[in-house]
Amino acid sequence: ESSASASWDFPQIKAKYLSEMIKALQPLAHVSTDSQVLYYTRARSTPKWNIEMNAYSISRHDLPFFVDSDWNLNSPTTPADVHTLHFVVYVPPKEHCPLIITSSDGKASQTNAFTVPGWGGVVIWNPPRCGASDSTAGAASPHQM
Question: Which parts of 20-140 are beta strand (E)?
Fold first, then answer.
């Protein structure tokens, strides 16, 4: 059994996905970015297996309990008038993969993401081999970003 490690090239991601937004906000605010990778961080809500979707799911009404204060996201020490927004990419543990967000009517979220007012946002990303056993290795997961 192999294990996977999550890593990323943040300068490349910043250039590709964030630079235009930062540039647009410059007349309104000073924006700085930082990146951090946390391993083995659990969500406070436990997902349930959804037979119809062949995936683990977490309902939208459980999302306020998803972000855990134990995530220990390092924020720079800032003055009281400076606000920090967190943008989190959550990769579910192997035993809860793939993981999808469901709406109150039971449908899968189009974005597999949510916001936490005053804190930031979380996107749940299921890697390509997420939930695949050796016999299904390489098969696409039901919900990929």
Answer: 48-50, 55-59, 86-90, 99-102, 113-116, 120-124
